[in-house]
Amino acid sequence: MQIYESAEDYLETILMIQERKGVVHSVDIAAEKEYSKASVSIAMKKLRENGYINMDPSGVITLLPPGRKIAERIYERHRILSSLFIHLGVSPKTAQEDACKVEHDLSVETFSKIKKFADQLENKK
Q1: 3-state class (DSSP) for residue 62
Q2: Residues 6+ apart with CB under 8 A from 99
Q3: pLDDT of 69-119, one tens digit each?
Q4: Torsion angle defined by CA atoms of residues 47, 52, 54 and 55, in that order, rounded to the nearest 10 degrees
Q5: Which residues is 55 bridged to in the sheet?
Q6: Cβ atoms within 10 Å of 42's Cβ, excluding its own
Q7: How many CB atoms lie under 10 A from the CB of residue 95?
């Protein structure tokens, strides 16, 4: 099943909020992404229908294994790319924004080479 960039962004956001706060509600996602609550509600319905998330009766959102796998992959790409861009001298804000743009489109091969290079940089510190 093909997953779109917007869905990857939502899943990554859920993971990031979950790591920070422990629990995630739709309003947290709306605030984080600066999206309307209605837009987030529609996206959560689609993610739930496709088996990526669960939402309990109180509105707590959790990642199901397929959603967690995607979120972790995208979040890893985001962290490594942001770090590399900052290492290159890009401002942290711009590095974060650019990582968001690039993290979805890199091939597995290219990302694995970037990750290997970033690891080598970290080991030289």
Answers
A1: strand
A2: 77, 78, 81, 82, 85
A3: 999 999 999 999 999 999 999 999 999 999 989 998 899 999 999 999 988
A4: -30
A5: 61
A6: 12
A7: 19
Reduced to 3 states, what is the DSSP secondary structure of residue 60?
coil
Token look-up 């967690």 returns: 68
Q: What is the DSSP letter of 55?
A: E
Question: For residues 85 and 64, is the Cβ–Cβ distance under 8 A?
Answer: no
Does the pLDDT at position 1 exceed 90?
no
Instruction: Supply the pLDDT for residue 4.
Output: 86
Q: In this structure, what DSSP letter does residue 47 have?
A: H
**C-beta atoms surrounding 121 within 10 Å:** 12
Token digits for 61? 């959102």
Place of tokens 């779109």: 4
Q: At what angle do helices 5-21 and 26-33 cross, to 10 degrees?
A: 110
- Would you call 61 helix, strand, or coil by DSSP? strand
* 59 touches 25 (CB < 8 A): yes
